[in-house]
Amino acid sequence: MxxxxxxxxxxxxxxxxxxxxxxxxxxxxSGYKDVADSIKKMVIRGAxxxxxxxxxxxxxxxxxxxxxxxxxxxxxxxxxxxxxETRPTAVNLFWALEEMKKVFxxxxxxxxxxxxxxxxxxxxxxxxxxxxxxxxxxxxxxVLNNGDTILTHCNAGSLATxxxxxxxxxxxxxxxxxxxxxxxxxxxxxxxxGARLTVWEMQKENIPVTLITDNMAGYLMSKGSxxxxxxxxxxxxxxxxxxxxxxxxxxxxxxxxxxxxFYVAAPLSTIDIGSASGNDIPIEERDGNEVRNxxxxxxTPSNTKVYxxxxxxxxxxxxxxxxxxxxxxxxxxxxKIKNMLKKNILTNFRNKKNSIDEIxx
Length: 361
Ligand code: MRU
Known about the structure:
Layout: E1 5-8, E2 11-15, E3 26-29, H1 32-40, H2 47-63, H3 72-84, H4 91-107, H5 111-140, E4 149-152, H6 167-176, E5 182-186, H7 193-204, E6 209-212, H8 217-222, E7 228-231, E8 235-237, E9 242-245, H9 248-258, E10 262-265, E11 271-272, H10 289-292, E12 293-294, E13 297-298, E14 311-314, E15 321-324, E16 327-329, H11 333-342, H12 356-359
Parallel strand pairs: 4-5, 4-7, 5-6, 7-10, 8-11, 10-15
Antiparallel strand pairs: 1-2, 2-3, 8-9, 9-14, 12-13, 15-16
Helix pairs in contact: 1-2, 1-3, 2-3, 2-4, 2-5, 3-4, 4-5, 5-6
The structure holds 5-S-methyl-1-O-phosphono-5-thio-D-ribulose (MRU).
5-S-methyl-1-O-phosphono-5-thio-D-ribulose binds at residues 45-48, 90, 154, 156, 160-161, 166, 193, 232-234, 244-245, 310.
């Protein structure tokens, strides 16, 4: 797998996801403002990857601080403010900034130690993300059967995380258990994460993938061509409502009508207990030119009025299960989320299809 983001010699390198699948180029970042800019402009995207980028942005900012700085708190708050204003929906961004704040509060008295500890934390967040995704894969693959065709939306793969992916991680895990899985990728207008990124990731691993435009999902379902839907999430509310890429809600409604299981795969860091329901989740709106253009070519008059919400929210009642690193939440989301956040109950879920709910009491 090609690395999404890396720390090398005091700099942060990110593969430029706007250029994929045609060019595999890395952008070098030497300051936190460059990192913030890259998050805003979608050089890096996907909730967990944005969280890792924010943590590394903080580490970059702190690494440039004078060792005798008298007001480290002022600088730290500014770094957090700039990074925190990049994208509003993916809660992993704010989760990562909170994690960095805890380290800052403990070590701020000695800047040299602070630099080291902050960097260690950023790297830990990155490394744990990939490990967590492998756990999500192990937990989730029990819902996939040999021969299944899985519809996914946007890109919840290696590129959207520090590695392996959430929804695509579940597919990777099923494949490595010997199951034959085919993927249908929705193209995901307007940014085309499905067409450009998911297809690219699946092809690199020889997982059969078919691209459709977003408006074809219902037809495929009506023909019995989709066995299960698997998507990621940018923020999950305490009641289990899940915000994900715009279009996810429509697919969930279609899945309900056609009786097709609809799963969300996400790490616990995507759960926001501060959002009681999906109504509390802020939905990012992006520039109208993303809709007026299709991969660089204008497709409508320049003055066309555009509405460009980047995410939508799927109510828990449409979700068959939320696959996390600690188990699958099928019922009672609030109670289970609270319990999961309290204790680590990950055991070996392999081939224990119906036992997961019993373990999460
Ligand atoms: O706008 P993006 O590309 O950042 O949106 C990404 C998604 O909606 C993903 O599905 C989500 O972040 C889950 S990624 C593991």
